[in-house]
Each structure stands twice: as structure tokens, then as C-alpha cells.
Amino acid sequence: MNVRYMYSLIAVIVLFLLAYAGAEAGVWSQYILGVVIPYLAILVFVVFFIRRIVGWAKSPVPFRIPTTCGQQKTLPWIKSSWLDNPSSRLGVIARMFLEIVFFRSLFRNTKFAVKDQNKPFYALELWLWVGALAFHMAFFTVVARHLRFFTQPVLFPISLLENIDSFFQVGLPGVFISGVVLFAAVTFLLIRRVLIPQVRYISLASDYFPLFLIFGIAFSGLLMRYFSKVDVVGVKEMAMGLVTLHPHIVEGVGAIFYVHVFFVSILLAYFPFSKLMHLGGIFLSPTRNMVNNNRAVRHINPWNYPVEVHTYEEYEEEFRDKMIEAGLPVEKE
Amino acid sequence: MSDELLKPEELIKIDHKIPSKDWMDTPVNIRKGMYCYASNPKSVEYVGLPHARAWNPLDDDWKLPENWKQIIHEGFKERLDKFRSFKVFMDICVRCGACADKCHFFIGTGDPKNMPVLRAELLRSVYRNDFTKVGKILGKIAGARELTIDVLKEWWYYFFSCTECRRCSVFCPYGIDTAEITIMARELLNLIGLNIDWIATPVANCYRTGNHLGIQPHAFKDMLDFFVEDIEEVAGGIQVEPSFNRKGADILFITPSGDVFADPGTYTAMGYLMLFHYLREKYGFDITWSTYASEGGNFGFFTSHETMKRLNSKMYAEAKRLGVKWILGGECGHMWRVINQYMDTMNGPADFLEEPVSPITGTKFENSKSTKMVHIAEFVADLIKHDKLELDPSRNDHLKVTFHDSCNPARGMGLLDEPRYVIQNVCNHFYEMPDNTIREQTFCCGSGAGLNAGENMEQRMLGGLPRANAVKYVHEKHGVNMLACVCAIDRAALPPLMEYWVPEVDVTGMTELVANALIMPGQVDRTTDLRGEEIPGLQSDDVKTEGDNVEK
Amino acid sequence: MSGHVKNFLEKRKTVIIKKWFDCVVDTYPPETASFLKKEKDPFNNPVGKTTVQCLEAIIDHLLDKRSEQDMISHLDPIIRIRSVQDFPPSKAAGFVLFLKKIIREELNNQKSKDVEINELSALDSKIDELVLIAFDVYAKCRETFYQIKANEAKNRFYKAFERAGLVTGLTEEKQDLS
């Protein structure tokens, strides 16, 4: 048994038990779970997220080192790849947009499979890309949708998003596709990590932990919406209380709700200290966010310092006789 | 009856179900043929790098300085503060596994620690332990571990099993570049005197004599003079006259010294001489070689940023001293990564040079207006486009050519179509290898970043297997018999690779093919290629076939 | 050899190759083995592809009346790879022996009564012969390898000396002699 995912799984189970016990214990512990911890988590998240970004930003970018994935811009008649080898800011913005929103590099996994000898065809190794994209898109939608609990009246874009999300109406209450997709995608990513030996080999406990946690969040969320119905009005009241800084506990919302909120709080507090910071880091990746125009526009290294070199004079000094003999021009005869 | 026989699995004892141990608990096995010899202390000393000493990777005792852990820790910290790339790449990997099977060394050797993600984790695990709170508190659970002598040995082995080819970086959703991580790791290793000799000695040579091979100025001239004789023989009595260290020349030419010295690079060097001669005769082209800046490549790049800068400084210094207008660079891989992504920043601004303009076509090389250095493929492509070269591609008809994109020009520059344009104009038979093995997805020769030594031949053969495998495919499918490239390391590394995996395929530089096809002014009775081999169908009496093709 | 073994091999070819391939690939670390088995792209997985192609060719021609040369050509690509990988000679070339066990297992599974003992021992000796050829191939590959290594060293230094005019006399003498 792999200790790395066992550690993470056990951690999440312990967290679940803590939250469940707390929710059942009484109003005081509900207050801790529903008010104190969420506030703390948000505080930790904001402060340390910013600190992390600032920490990265403080280190300079001494060299312009984009990974070029297409033809450079040189002679006017050679078609250059403005997107994969951007020669302008616009190209970089487009490249970054596709990278961040559609995970373009991950999509690049073109595979060449020979089906029969004469007809080679290209197939895409899609699953990692599909899984990752589904996961992130769904996560984003779910988070955005949750803003309905924190705004009064509910903002138009949020209700619009909800309508789109529940477009495929299947019975009542309307099924939000995002929630289901999120749950499926996180399950897929988890299974993939456990089952593919190469990926399991490289995975750390810190890779499993967020997956188990998000699995818990998605599961408790689905549970609340479709099975053990919670008091939605009460939830909204509590959420608005948090937002307007008049936090209070509404009785009888249900233990699952506290588990859900606790998991989310843990995720928020864990976020800035973990690999989840790739959310911020991707914007700062020098191999992707730079223009490949090094030879046209000089890049400045803020800490460039003079170095010891072997000058021509020293060189000639050493080899002068031989150079003269060979008929090579010299500075000093 | 089956028990009368020895069971096959008893004959060869292979345990099928070895329980997979955690990679952190698998100590490095420094295997013969898979590593390069330690640096010669004299070379390390010559360039003033620290802790020069004789040591052997196979010994238990690496004779490290007493405070080596502290040196590494401080060096690590300094680099985190100096390079955003390093800091971000230490933090954001999610271990998705997209890069795992993209490394030629993993594909060839099957060693899981050659997966780019794990290579980086070797460093990250120590980073977490030394520089992150979570790592300090949770230790191994958070993927952190202390830097021990075993970890250090692992670093040395695996960071000298990376050719900095950046293929994994293409597929990483965050653009994490293992080359960048390897560069940092090698800097750290150099702080305690742990380099390999195939890098350290060329660096010292280059510092002293101007080139990696340590060719002194008079010998450098001698070598080119030999080419002059060879050319007279193979190019129908043409007498080329290269000039050296000449002040007031229009252009300075710098190319890797490897091509001056070993086949088949020498034919590319002859190609340069013939091309420049042709241009001089026809258009008064004025170019000079330098013995001081007689190296295009830069093995300092494989040592540290500082060493790279120290070696690279000669290019601009020599251009300034000679008073040329701009610099033309020959075919080389990592040389062009350095020129394209580092030179101007490190040793610029080159405000004493002019913005490069082709004296023959008048084309302004806008893309190099700051660095003032143009790639020979860009330069020649422009000449061909403007119809300035008289070419007879049928002189290359005996060749079926494919093109190997060298890692650095492909993924550190984007020089993809210029060499293809040139080759397709000088050869009639050109075939591409499969898409996922060329251009930005090209496979490394397996010997880059200072790993083309002799003692690590197994490593080179395995690292180059994916490349050779794709060559084999076009060889079997189209009869390809010539592998073209624009890199001197390739020209040194690919011939043995081909000889082992696809012995029917030879290796050439782009300019050799150009010179083969170039109709030299005043040539008589030219029936051989640059290698002195008779071109089929070009006997002395049917020279006129040459003339027929000139028009196209 | 009578047709029973041949029929059997033809009928169960896919299964036998699959099992054999798995055995051969399991000589690598488990993480790598799974990559070698799963990755279908021949250019991203030259080791897996070459291995499977060679095993197929060997099975196809195991019972043919063939020249040794043919068998060498089927064995060469896979052993060429394994001989430079991290295997001792026994493991690099000995994978052929897995075949004995696999075929027996298959015969047992199929409860095949057609194949007689003398046929089976004839098959065994075919496989033994194959092992010996495999060792020849291995030795040949290493020989080529060291030849290349030696040549490279020679080309690097000798030719440089030659160009630098240090050994001109020597080469001329040599040419005269030949």
C-alpha cells in the first residue's frame, strides 16, 4: 500500500470526523466551524497568497528565455508562428490566454500510432488534457456559482451562469452540470494518479491531499444539493452574515454543511503553501510569458556584473611569436 | 515432464514483481558508460573556479570541501533570489506527468529518474527541506529531504544526464523548463568543484586559446589552410583565400571550432570557405575569421551563467577590435541559444556595430538589429531567395536527405524553416521525419550540453535512440541516406549514433550541401562532392548536365 | 517437425507474443515497464515498439526452415538496444528462454494433447539454438559498439594531429605500404 496516498486519505478522513463532531457538538463549535475558521482561512489565504506572489515577483528575470514552439520571426517571406513563438506582446497575451484557459501545452501530446503499415495517423493523447480541463473549468464554474450565496440581490452574471449550467434540466432540483463534472473529473484525476505506475511513482502526499480534499468538498456539496437537503435559506443567511461582517449561526442547517465549509476552509488555508499556487505561478513563468525578440530588443539583467575575461591583449601576449611566424596580423610587432 | 527441465526463470534470475521502492529510497547507481569523467583540476584551476581537485565519481570519498552543505545552501538561496524562473519552477509543479515520457534519456534508458519531473524533484526535495515551512515541518510526507552525500551524488549523476534540450518544457502546462533546473543544479555542483572533464577542459581551452579544442592561433590557421588545399582538389581547382584577424573587414565570422577539426564537420567548414569565396568573387563580399574568437560554442553555458559570460565576451570584444559592421554566426546549436537568449543581455549593448544588412541583397536583418549577429541559415536563405547563388541541386542527387532540428535552435530560438528552405533548394530529395520528432518536438542527439564524451558512450547511444529510431523510419521508408543538421555537436555525435543504429545513414551540415551544389566561378572538371567522392552520373565528359539545371 | 506445434503456435500466436512481451518488458523497472507496454506511438516508444516487432518476427519464423542469418536479423534490433541498456549479457540476450515456459503454460492451459513430447523437445532445441544465436548477436553488438567508441577516439585525436601536420610522415608511409 502506498503510504503517500494513505497519509492524505487519513488526513482528510480525520478532518471530516473533526468537522462532523464539531457540527453535532453544539452552537459554540458550530460557531468555530462556521465563523471563526472560515474567517481565519480567508485571512491566511489572502495574506500568504499575496506574499507568495510578491516573493516570486521579487526575484528578477535576468534573461529572456521563452521556450519557442514554432518558427521565429526573421525574414519577411518566412511565415513566423506569432502564437507559439511570439514576436510581440499581443502574441504573448494570446499564448498565455490559450495556455491558462485551454492548457494548450498539455494538448500538444500528439501521438503517432501506426495502425497499418501504410497509413500512419495522428491521434491525440487526450485524457489528461480532458480531465484537467474539465476539472478546472468545472471548479471555476462552481466557485462562481457559489457567489449567489454571498450577494444580495444575486448578480445577473451569476444567475445567467446558473441558467447555462443547469441547461440540461433533469428533474427537480435542476442538475448543475459543473458540480457533477467536477466530481467526475476529480475522481478521474485521483484514479489516474493511483493507477498509472509512472504517475504514482512521481506523486507525493501533497499531490493526493488536495485531490482527496476536493473530492470531499464536491461530494459533500452534491450530497447537500441532491440528497440530504439542507436549509438553503439558512445557508444564505449565514453566508451573507460572513460577507457583511455580522456573522451568526443559523440553527438546523445540518452537519454536512459544516463539513463542506470546513473542507473549503482547509483548502483555502492550505492553498498558498502548496502546489496549488500554480494558479498564480503560471502567470510568472518566464518560458511562456516572454516575447522572443531577444536579438531585436535588448533585455536588461538588473544584476548584470562585470566578469573576469581573457582579453585579446593577454591572448596576443601569449601567442605573439607564433602568430607572427604564421603571418597572422598582430597589434604589437 | 516439465519438471525435468530447468525452469527458464531459474536460468535467468529476473524478479518480475520487484515491489516499487520510493524513489527517494533508491540510491544512485553510477554505472560505467553512463557518466563522464570528473573534471581535470588543472582546467578548473585555470579559469579560477573553486575547489579544483582530482576526484573520482566511483570513489566513496569525493573529497568535498568541509562546508559543502553550507556552500550549496547559500548558493541555492542566492539563485532563488536571482532567477524568477528557478523560484517559480521550484514551487509550481503539480506532477501531472505530462513530461514523464518526453525525455529521450527516459525513453532510451528506461530509468525512471530520467523522467524530467523526477530530475527536477531531486532538487525540489532539498528546496522544500531548506526553504519552505511545510517541508521543514512535514519532512518526507511533504516530499522534502535533507541534502546528504547520497543525494549529492544523485544530483551529479542525473544533472549530467540531461542535455538541456527543453523538449519537456514544450509539453509542460506551466512551461517548467528542466534545462533551467539543470543549469542551476550544475552551477551549484560547480561551487564545490563537481564538473565533468568534457566540459571543464574545453572551458579552460576556450578561455586561453579562444576555442574549445585548445587550437593555438597558428595551428588554427594551418587547419584552415589544409581545407584550402582540400578544396582545390575537390572543387575543380578553386583557390580560396580565407583571411584572419583582419581589421576593417565588413563582417566577422564565428563558428564552432569542432567543425575545423573533426569529420564530417570539416566538410561544413570547407563549405563556409567555398561560399565566402563565391560571394567574394561575385559580389566583393568581405569577411574575416578570428583566431581569438575562434569558438562559436560555449561550454561555459554548461558550467555557470558567469562562465558562459566570460567565454562569450570574446565575440563582441573581437568584433569591436576589428571594427567590423556585424557578425555572422555558423551552424551550431547551443551557440545560438546563447547568442539568441543571453549574449546581448550579458555582454551588450553592441552599439559599436551596425544593424546587420546583407551587403549582397540589401536585406536588413531586422530581427537581429540589437544583437547584430545573423545566423548563416538566415543569411543563405536570403541569398537564395534573391537568386544570388548559382546552384545545381542535382549535384546532391545521390543524397536522400532528412533534417534533424537541433534542440537549441528549435526550442531556444525557432530556427526551423530557414535551414529547410536552404536544403530544399540545394537538394532534390528531401524527406521529413515524423511530426512528433522534428521542429519544436525534435529529439535530442543524446550528447548535448557537454555530454559528447567518449567514456559515456552507452548513455549517448541510449539518449540518441529516439532520434535514431525516427531516422531509421525514413531510411526504411524513403531510402534516406543523409542526415542534415545545423549543429557542430550533432555532427560530432550523430555519426557514431547512426553507425550503431542506422549504419546506412551519414551526417552532414547544411553548408556542406550548399557548397556541393554551388557552381563555383572558374571551376573545371568538378566531379566529386566535398568528401572527394565521385558524384554518380557526373563523369568528366558530361559536365554539361550541370549547366542544364542552373536555370531553376 | 510435424504440424501440431506449428498449428498450435499459429493459433495461439497473439497470446504467446503478449505473454512473452510482458515477460521481457518486466525486466525493466515497473514504472518503465508500464510505459513500454502502454505507449503506442512508435516514435515515443522505440524500445517497446522494437521489442514487440522482434518478438513477433521470431515467433513467425521460429519453425521455418530458415538460415541463421534470418534469425540474426530478427534478433538484432532488440538485442542491439538491450546490449547498451543496464543489463548483464545474460539478461540482455537470455529473454529468449522465457519462451519455453510460456509455450508450456499455454499448452497446459489449452489442455492440448496433440503436441507430443518429441515435438516439444524439438521445439526446445529450436529455442536453445535461438539463445545461442542471441548470444552471437549480443557479442556482435558489443563489438560494433566498442569499434565505434575506439574509432571516435581515434578520429578525435589522430585526425587532429594529422591535420596539424604532426603525423603526415606516418600516414604517407602507411599508404606506401598498403
Task: Outline the structure in words.
- The complex is a heterotrimer of chains A (333), B (552) and C (178).
- Chain A is mainly alpha-helical and 333 residues long.
- Chain A is 59% helix and 4% strand.
- Chain A contains 13 helices and two strands.
- A two-stranded antiparallel sheet of chain A has the order 1-2.
- Chain A is elongated and about 100 Å long.
- Chain A starts with a helix and ends in an 8-residue tail after the last helix.
- Chain B is mostly helical.
- Chain B folds into three domains: 23-195, Orthogonal Bundle (Fumarate Reductase Iron-sulfur Protein, Chain B, domain 2); 202-385, no CATH class; 393-549, Rossmann fold (3-Layer(aba) Sandwich).
- Chain B has 24 helices and seven strands.
- Chain B has helices at residues 8-11, 41-46, 68-82, 84-91, 104-109, 116-131, 133-138, 149-159, 167-171, 178-191, 197-209, 217-234, 258-261, 265-283, 305-322, 334-347, 376-385, 407-411, 417-426, 457-463, 465-478, 488-501, 510-517, 544-549; strands at 251-254, 287-289, 326-329, 373-375, 401-404, 482-485, 506-509.
- In chain B, the strands form two sheets. Chain B has a four-stranded parallel sheet with strand order 2-1-3-4. A three-stranded parallel sheet of chain B has the order 5-6-7.
- Chain C is mostly helical.
- Chain C is elongated, with a radius of gyration of 22 Å.
- The model of chain C is unreliable at 168-178 (pLDDT under 50).
- In chain C, helix 2 (13-25) packs across helix 7 (98-110) and helix 4 (46-61) runs antiparallel to helix 5 (68-82).
- Chain C has helices at 3-11, 13-25, 30-38, 46-61, 68-82, 89-93, 98-110, 117-163, 168-177.
- The interface between B and C is large, with 50 and 52 residues.
Coarse morphology of chain A: elongated
Unreliable stretches of chain A (pLDDT < 50, length at least 5) are 113-124
The total of beta strands of chain C comes to: 0
What is the overall number of helices of chain C?
Answer: 9
Low-confidence stretches of chain C: 168-178
Radius of gyration of chain C: 22 Å
The N- to C-terminal Cα distance of chain C equals: 52 Å
Largest sheet of chain C: none
Second-tier CATH architecture of the largest domain in chain A: Up-down Bundle
Write the H/E string of chain A, N to C. HHHHEEHHHHHHHHH
CATH class of chain C, please? Mainly Alpha
Can you tell me the CATH superfamily of the largest domain in chain A?
Transmembrane di-heme cytochromes, Chain C
What is the makeup of the main sheet of chain A?
A: 2 strands, antiparallel
Q: Major sheet of chain A: order of its strands?
A: 1-2
Number of strands of chain A: 2
